[in-house]
Design a protein that fits this description.
Layout: H1 2-13, E1 24-32, E2 38-45, E3 53-58, H2 65-75, E4 79-84, H3 101-113, E5 122-127, H4 129-138, E6 145-151, H5 158-161, H6 169-181, H7 186-204
Length: 208
């Protein structure tokens, strides 16, 4: 079934041909940060040698579209490394938005450098918060960083959080509700998002 889904997605997206050989998948690898927190990581490995690596660090879980993306990248000769930010997706610690992404990203890059399949070529990809995680690491990645695809994101979040110099309660609470919904399976998540709307509306009517 994964191969069928991958082929259908490849055709729909008009992607270039795949490389020969199977994709090897390792899930829930423990990447240890400098303070001992374990960051859970999935690795999609191509069959080719000397392949570059695409790193995605995310607070939104490693399943669904990212699982498919990992296979699509590996089938085209890229190591896809997808990691849950601390406090999310099975990773240890507490999720404190923006606070740990620089150090955790640097520790993950140090882990990558110690892997036998590491080629010294790094790319990063991600949307929204995943893009911020890229910017947090970019300055310390050195010449090994060859590409970034940061979609609908920013290197700093003050302008969106304090739009017009006032706290953007709607933006922050909506994002918090989205993050909470990530903790349950996909079908239950849709119900949780729907169920959360009245609570979100009530919260928006209350001034902190």
């Amino acid at each position: 079934m994964p191969d069928l889904v991958t082929r259908l997605a490849s055709a729909a997206l008009r992607l270039p041909p795949t490389r020969p050989g199977p994709v090897r998948v390792s899930r829930d690898l423990p990447v240890r940060a400098r303070d001992g927190v374990v960051l859970r990581t999935d690795h999609y490995a191509p069959a080719v040698r000397g392949a570059p690596t695409v790193l995605i660090r995310t607070p939104y879980g490693r399943g669904g579209p990212l699982r498919l993306l990992g296979r699509l990248l590996a089938a085209r000769g890229r190591h896809a490394v997808i990691q849950s930010c601390r406090g999310t997706g099975g990773s240890g610690g507490t999720f404190a938005p923006l606070v740990h992404e620089r150090d955790d990203g640097a520790d993950t890059l140090d882990w990558l450098r110690r892997q036998p399949w590491w080629s010294g070529q790094l790319g990063m990809f991600g949307v929204s918060y995943q893009g911020f995680a890229q910017w947090a690491l970019a300055a310390d990645a050195g010449e090994e960083l060859r590409a970034m695809v940061a979609v609908v994101t920013a290197s700093a979040t003050r302008d969106s959080t304090y739009a017009g110099e006032s706290f953007a309660l709607d933006t922050v609470l909506t994002w918090a509700e989205l993050l909470h919904a990530q903790t349950v399976p996909w079908l239950a998540r849709q119900w949780e998002l729907k169920r959360g709307q009245p609570r979100l509306a009530a919260a928006l009517e209350h001034l902190p």
